[in-house]
Amino acid sequence: MIPTRPPSASTLPLAGKGLIWRASLLGAGLLVLIHAHASALTAYVSNEKSNSVSVIDVDKLAVVKTIKVGQRPRGIELSKDGKFILVAVGDDDTIQMIDSNTHEIVATLPSGPDPELFAQDPSGKILYVANESDNTVTIIDMTTRARIGEVQVGVEPEGMGLSPDGKILVNTSETTNMAHFIDTQTRQIVANVLVDARPRFAQFKPDGSELWVSSEIGGTVSVIDPVKHEVTAKIAFEIPGLRKEAIQAVGIAISNDGRTAFVALGPANRVAVINAATHAVEKYLLVGQRVWHMAFTPDEKYLLTTNGVSNDVSVIDVASLKVIKTIQVGELPWGVAISRQ
Amino acid sequence: MVACANAAEIRIGYLRQMQSKAHLSLIKIPADDDGLAGARLAISDDNTTGKFLNQQFSLEDARVGEGDDPAAATLALAERGVALVLADLPADALLKAAAAGRTRDLLFFNVGAIDDRLREEECRGNVIHVAPTRSMLADALAQYLVWKQWRRWFLIVGSHPPDKLYADALRRSAKRFGARLVQEKVFEDTGGARRTDSGIAQIQRQLPVFTQGAPAYDVLVAADESEVFASYLPYRTWDPRPVAGSAGLIATTWDAAHDQWGAVQMQSRFMKMFGRRMGARDMQAWTGVRMIGESASRTLSVDPRALLDFLRGPEFALAAFKGQRLTLRDWNLQLRQPILLSDGTMVVSVSPQEGFMHQVSELDTLGVDRPETKCRLN
């Protein structure tokens, strides 16, 4: 699932001063080298058209490297142990594992055809993959890296959201227009909830009390009670001067305290800021063109957005709700994941 | 979730008259299941959704020959429990079917006829139009040509009635969007075969001469729905100019090369199921059956009246790989939709073009808009 936030975002000590101090004894050239390693955060952006992943140093807010990957990279996430960047390369029918230290592709996963988005269980042992072309969710054991099962869902499965306790997997199907609730123990569908057209993304609130599902063509976010399996609220968006067809809801990011949500509005080129308790839209932030997915830094200081048509990433300062920087990446940036190294 | 134990059955009729196979290019000749295949794919999609809602969809293919009575075929479908009919018929046959269907409360989805009159003077309250109109297609093309600043058009029109209708639509579009017809010429169909063993030698001499002596123009626009001459024009005009309309750059609802907005999934599903590429009529039929599936899943009803109310209401929005929602014009039951512009190998652009504004929906810059409509639904 994207955006990704590694768990327990609170306390890793900022890697640091000691390293830099030591480095300074060794001369400036090495300082830069070691600083890159000591840098707290790295963002990885999948570029759907370039077949690459841009590596962004989040301290410098600059691209430091580009990794060549397979064809049509979209869904991207960090493995729970932080050792790998997982990137779904749909046209190669696989998920590639990139070593987060060496940035080398070290393995591939039997994802099934045309993988797009995926979710890991809280332990990081199981990966659930949406296969767009055959109405299936594929289940992969991350220890053996083998396919261990599948669940039949609706037409064109896309969004994948796991409940915080890992018991319920929600998959959204784009042409069936449903959120399918799957019991991860029995691997059976336990409920189906209709949402607006072309659901793209599913995200539980951190306390598991609500499931949010965005509908790209419908242009709304459905708030679903995950116990009753009912839509309890629908968030719509209105932006003066923009025709309603251009407002399309895609990526969702909810802050760890569950108070604030951000929804990427695609060709509206804006991110909506939503009071997650009242579901009221409080602000629209102008970002790059066709904003798609987002990821918080672990400290939630920044929210990074991928902007497909303008080929860049917008950096939102979460406290001030301002876009503070735009970073050029590859062509058609799609997803983003952020690691601590 | 639906409460009933037995699956609700939704039988959809596919009423069709086989299309003409007279095409200049072999690759344009329609497959026998052109259209029908799209409907079948949508039935499969609807059933995947339906299994979660206890709804089951099925399709019944009903062919009518040119001499057959479409009214009788319609009533026969009604006898077999069909209440929803996809119609791929010429305009007059469709009107006869719709009149017969009215007595049995049938709801029709026109997936083939592009005639504006079916949405205007002769609109019907029980016919939803999935196929675009000629005026929508012409407007989509004109917006792009004007955006390209190719405003001076040399129009060549075929001698058959549909060619003239398309030419009328193109003239209207030119006027709406600021293009100018610098010359018009009719290409008379004098008969003869479309296929000969050494035809190219003659065509290569005839077409340059036919297009010789035109005033300065930017683009040659051909109206030739009858497939008599337009495909001969590209690369053979006297002046080196691009061709658009019925050849060259063509306005359509679907193209086998369309790959944006998730369309690749659709293309590969279709290819896997039918072993051929998906065409415009397939897409129109897919869209029609998906409209039925969508409205049935939202209303949990199989009643045509309930489905129609939902489809023309504000809640209906269909995702169809065009980058934005498709909705229904409630004044004449025409589906609003973006139109692709294809050169036969690639999708060159998608209209409406940027900058053509509208107070309700930019999709309403394509075709006859509400203030101009002659439709009075009853």
What attributes characterize this protein structure?
heterodimer; A: 341 residues; mainly beta; 4-stranded antiparallel sheet; 6% helix; B: 378 residues; alpha/beta; Rossmann fold; 2 domains; 5-stranded parallel sheet; 4-stranded parallel sheet; 18% strand
Description:
- The complex is a heterodimer of chains A (341) and B (378).
- Chain A has 341 residues and is mainly beta.
- In chain A, the strands form seven sheets. In chain A, strands 3-2-1-28 form a four-stranded antiparallel beta sheet, with no helix packed on it. A four-stranded antiparallel beta sheet of chain A has the order 4-5-6-7, with no helix packed on it.
- Chain A is built from two helices and 28 strands.
- Residues 1-39 of chain A have low confidence and may be disordered.
- Chain A has helices at 17-25, 28-38; strands spanning 42-47, 52-57, 62-68, 73-78, 84-89, 94-99, 105-109, 115-120, 126-131, 136-141, 146-152, 157-162, 168-173, 178-183, 188-194, 199-204, 211-215, 220-225, 230-236, 252-254, 260-264, 270-275, 280-286, 291-296, 302-307, 312-317, 322-328, 333-339.
- Chain A is 6% helix and 50% strand.
- In chain A, strand 9 and strand 10 (136-141) form a beta hairpin.
- Chain A starts with 16 loop residues before the first helix and ends with a strand.
- With 378 residues, chain B is an alpha/beta fold.
- The mean pLDDT of chain B is 94.
- Chain B folds into two domains: 8-132 and 255-337, 3-Layer(aba) Sandwich (Rossmann fold), CATH 3.40.50.2300; 135-252, Rossmann fold, CATH 3.40.50.
- In chain B, 33% of the residues lie in helices and 18% in strands.
- In chain B, a hairpin with a 4-residue loop joins strand 11 (328-329) and strand 12.
- In chain B, helix 2 packs across helix 3 and helix 8 crosses helix 9.
- Chain B has a five-stranded parallel beta sheet, sandwiched between helices.
